[in-house]
Design goal:
The structure is a homodimer of 191-residue chains.
Chain A: H1 3-17, H2 28-35, H3 39-45, H4 49-68, H5 76-93, H6 95-103, H7 119-135, H8 142-159, H9 171-187
Chain B binds a DNA duplex (30 and 30 nucleotides) through helix 3.
Amino acid sequence: MTPEERRRQLLGIGLRKFVDRPVQELSLDEVAAEAGVSRGLLFHYFPTKTAYHEAVVAAAGRRVLRTLRPDDGVTGEAAVRQIVERFVAQVDRRRGFYLAFVYGQIGLPAGAAGPRQDVAIGLRRNISGLVCTAMGYAAPLTPVVHAWVAYVEDLALQHTEPGTSWGAGTAPLVDHCVALLPVLVALGPPA
Amino acid sequence: MTPEERRRQLLGIGLRKFVDRPVQELSLDEVAAEAGVSRGLLFHYFPTKTAYHEAVVAAAGRRVLRTLRPDDGVTGEAAVRQIVERFVAQVDRRRGFYLAFVYGQIGLPAGAAGPRQDVAIGLRRNISGLVCTAMGYAAPLTPVVHAWVAYVEDLALQHTEPGTSWGAGTAPLVDHCVALLPVLVALGPPA
DNA sequence: CGGCTTATTGAGCAATGCTCAATAGTATGC
DNA sequence: GCATACTATTGAGCATTGCTCAATAAGCCG
């Protein structure tokens, strides 16, 4: 097995496991056993346990972002609608995964200058980047869009909360979010 | 030292420590050493390591919520303004603490029926409860208010992000958030 | 085949989560 | 004031686990 495959295999195992429990509780023993390799090998691919965890979470972030990217040629509000639809659908289908991703996180460094990357917030930044390019929004609007992503994220998570689901389908939710964005922009940036 | 004091002491140590690093990396050895007690004693007060971590994070949540509660007699939009002001101020003053609280979280259970409590989302629910009673909002509006809290939280965190601070003071930010709430309500719930 | 690189192992160390029987210290009932 | 019950506290000890390192196996190129 080539190193590239190994790496992907190990990350894949992490991705499968991290839905069930917080990443930090995923022992390298377990990963090694599942992969059928020795514990020592993991340290050949990842310098430390947390490095492995970060790699897993980063992979999860890339995976989420990939499914959100709107179809080629679609722009403007239609693109935003696609993004929101896919986002809500994904949260709906794999609530545990997304929940674990956002809140079952590797902690952030207190000083922001640390080497660690905040992948959950990084994902928000990426999504808001998607939206901004789709709508042609410029720099001073990005904070608002960023916070709007947090808003959509929270609504989607609430919507899929077991037992508390208000409304049947996802359509009103998507409508609400898409309609909100221009309203926010009209409200003007908080600066 | 009475058990009540002990408990508070141990939680206090956790509260101080969990700003610097993710809670999960706080070893019981360290806590025991700092408290000047044996490791075994910790298991007399908390059944397991994660139980201790959860207790610490829950205490942090109570602490945050306490500072947000508006003054007696203040209601309506004025109360909302107070809440937002204090929230932003708190995030501003102790960014690391709040960041660690929301995102450096103990992971959530995949199945929602698990015994664990989601304290970060629980805090959001509590804050939105504060806002709803202040404004007299009824049940169908709560999801929107909840998501609005997420919006405010994200903006506040962005605002204190080192280097990326747009705008000088917190006033425009507070204005923006307070103004947004009735707009959201007017937009109607997504159901 | 011989030699180089590297993926891989396995032993071993130290930290740490956790258990448990023993102890010390305190309050209570008489 | 004494004995009893209770519990806070300890310390030894076990198993897991993050991590290191020297040794080995396995490919690859000449």
